[in-house]
Amino acid sequence: MADLTLAIAHHLLIFSLAGVLAFEIGAIRPGITSEDVVRLSRADRWYGVLAAAILLVGFTRAIFAAKGWAYYSANVFFMAKMGAFAVVGLLSIVPTVAIVRWRRASADNRAFSPALPKIRDIRRILWAEATVFAFIPAFAAAMARGYG
Predict the structure, then answer these.
(1) Residue 110: which residues within 8 A CB-CB, separation 6 or more?
(2) Which end of the chain is more exposed for a tag (fewer CB within 10 A), N or C?
(3) Over residues 2-20, mean pLDDT
């Protein structure tokens, strides 16, 4: 039962993180207002909370659930999944820093709107995150089926 509960929690957290990433891609656009920046800042905080929860639940699952750490630690697809998650995490730093800066600027100036080139740059990074993120379930599916 613990394995099932951890698997469900892990999957729900991953889907939630994907939802926040999709929200950020949609919210960061030309003409973003200071109110949008406030919402975006809240969502980005949830992105970090969800990412931490995914790691906590995922490693708990890998160590204590049905297959055990020996299975996961020797699996190339598990390592690829962790690598992809790390790349997504590293890529997410740049948008987070930009969002924090935008939030501060919008607090000082209610008419603040980020510059179009910066918006374009951040959107490219978010799309790169989404692209790498898409590999995570592919690696997980291969791993779950005994490949690697």
Answers:
(1) 34
(2) N
(3) 95
Query: C-alpha 52: how far from its chain's center?
Result: 10
Question: Cβ contacts of residue 13 below 8 Å, gap of 6+?
Answer: 50, 53, 54, 57
As a whole number of angstroms, the distance between CA 6 and CA 144 comes to: 15
What does pTM read for this prediction? 0.92
Average pLDDT over residues 121-145: 96
Domain ranges, residue 98 = 2-144
- CB-CB neighbours of 123 under 10 Å: 17
- Which pLDDT score, from 0 to 100, does residue 139 have? 97
What span, in angstroms and rounded, lies between the C-alpha atoms of 45 and 58?
A: 20
Three-state DSSP state, 29: coil
* pLDDT tens column, 19-57: 999 999 999 999 999 999 999 999 999 999 999 999 999
State whether the Cα torsion 20-21-23-28 is positive or negative: positive
CA distances from 5 to 62, 76, 114 (A): 13, 25, 42
First to last CA, the chain: 26
Number of H helices, E strands in the chain: 5, 0
Domain count, the chain: 1
